[in-house]
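Okay, is this right?
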Amino acid sequence: MSYLSKIVVNTVNDFPDSIKQLNILFEKNLFKDSLELIELNLKQNPELNNNPDFLNIYGLIQLNLKDWEQAIKNFEKATEIDINFRPAYFNLGLSYYDLGKLNNAYEAFCKVLEIEKNNKRAQENIIKILHCIKIKNNNGDNLVDANNELQKLKFDFDLSKKITNKKILGILDISKSITSRYISDFTFREHQLFFHNQQDLNCERHFRIFRQQNTISNKCFSCYKVIIKLFDVNDLIRLSFIFNNFDFLDNFEMKCRVDLENKIYRGYIYCSSIVDLDLVANKIKSLLLINFDNNYELETRRGCSEYLKSFPEFKNINNDPKKMFQYPENWTKNEELVDSQTYKNGLPIIRNAQKPLKGMTLNYFLIMNNWINISKEMK
């Protein structure tokens, strides 16, 4: 069964031909065409405006077009018609999350859990929200209780000294002990830990353009990375502690992850200019030497590895920009073509990334727990 059919099983008989067409358009990321088709159906069949399944599809297409306000209206209308319509509450949570209205998103996902107590996707989204905001728990929410307790942990380090394995294990043990009091299932699909600076890099858009047009977005030509390669899971956790505590880096986007393909661990710091790249690389080197001796590799380059098979020269950096791979002017049309089908007005919309809380969170601990489990499999 195709994607849209799965979410509209009860409605397929109302407009079966349109569902088939919508599936084709949706899976090709032709969201604007999808919107035109669904609005044509609504014009021909006004009674669909009282069908929660239809309204959920309508909102989902608007959500993908980044038209969050209109998507919210349709999801809310669907829940007014059917107060137990779980998919609309879930998509309402996603819409509010993208808008940066995290308290509203939390309430929507809680509603999903009222209807389906063990909905794992709703739980995971709540955990992501709690990574960014504190919520006073008045509803007996174990996830909120666990997060609030983890936030009380002492989590500041003297970065002039090495963060020892003993310190790392101590934090992991007490985090596990706290978490175990509130939840028994540590399963969590996320294994990348992000440290956002409230500015979305909009990578989803850029990868979409590359996949569809073999074109690197113009924005990526001013995206530079400091990449830190590590060879032990404790070192990845140690690096995440540095990222969390080194205030200088608060103005930069960062992430830590396990590279399963190459069986190593990586940290990334994203910069918007060569000047910033050099500054960050020099600032971080002293901390790396203190914490990892020489057991790490540091690389600076431009752009994402996904681009390098088609354009290997793109990553190369030169202090003379004219000697670097330049953005071909004819690529502008390729970007505009993809954007015209992806965004309501054909213009990219950038959401505000959510800046995480300082210190330990449930999201943070569960991702570290994933790293440890993955490291055992890698060995």
